[in-house]
Amino acid sequence: MNAGPRNAITDVEGLLVGHHQQVGDGWATGTTVVLTPPHTVGAVDARGGAPGTRETDTLLPENLVQHVNAICLSGGSAYGLAAADGVMRWLAEHNRGLAVGTRPHEVVPIVPSAVLFDLPVNAWGNRPSSDFGYAACEATSDTRPEQGSVGAGTGARVGSLKGGVGTASTVVDGFTVGALAVVNAVGEAVDELTGIPFAARFGLNGEFGGPWPNRAATLPDIPRRLLNTTIGVVAVDARLAKAETRRLAVAAHDGLARAVHPAHSMFDGDTIFALATGTKELADEGGAVKEPLRALGLDRLCAAAADTFARAMVHGLLAAEANGKLPAYRDLWPEHSP
């Protein structure tokens, strides 16, 4: 496997990513949006004990809706789900959604969403509104998304360190697998005796820089935040059914568990969405003989999804910037320069 050209989820052709955040004067929160090309299949897997989500039931394989128009990731805990209203408004203005009438504007945008807990770093009442989701849509592009303390990662925290948004991609068997992770976990992401992120060994082509510091550091003695959530998206340009797409989300949680210890606690809302844009055939779909080949191909994509999501989480950790008393990785191990 090799990293994609930009090593970002936007290496999956057709995906656009945008951030919007507000910082200062009692604000440290934001929203990140992934816009999808037409006919993108969506799925989800939530493993944490405290998820905050919207429209996830539409993604169940047995339900009617097959395609999604956007994924909205936001700070603000359950209040931040309001950001999805702005995403729907933007999509509706562009006539993008599930057609429910005969005229172009008669659509219902499908915007599955998840939020993370960042309320303590904001003055009470400061959380993403629908305007955040709309602004994030306006900011979308197919370039490599900004990483670190931006968008939904603005107020993120991972264990004793500042968290943030990270992205990565992998090319395997001619398919591109991309991931975008918002790292906000109860567990730690770094071995404090060495300064090496737990998922560092999954890096490709020296993407994390180096060398790793290989020395201990004293993590800050600040109160633990018990309500956290790592949320994100894994995507592939293969043509998959909803049930197959969900396998990507399931596998991506393996990557999450490699990157933070512990993972999927009762106090995390860990939720990962999966997208399949469908521009490339995974395998010929007809005939019993060909089914094992399709399953093997899907299994390869799932393995790549796990590794790529873990790498995206490391990028989010390394790119984050300190917020108040909460230091960033770069503050405790400045000699490491990714």
Notes on the protein architecture:
The model has no long low-confidence stretch (mean pLDDT 94). Helix content is 21%, strand content 24%. β1 and β2 form a beta hairpin. The protein has five helices and 16 strands. It has a single domain, classed as L-amino peptidase D-ALA esterase/amidase (4-Layer Sandwich). The chain is α+β, with helices and mostly antiparallel strands and 338 residues long. The chain is globular, with a radius of gyration of 19 Å. The two termini are 20 Å apart. The longest helix has 29 residues. The chain has a five-stranded mixed beta sheet. The chain has a five-stranded mixed beta sheet with strand order 3-16-15-12-11, with helices on one face. This is Peptidase S58 family protein. GO terms for molecular function: aminopeptidase activity. InterPro entries: ArgJ-like_dom_sf, Peptidase_S58_DmpA. It comes from Kibdelosporangium aridum. Belongs to the peptidase S58 family.
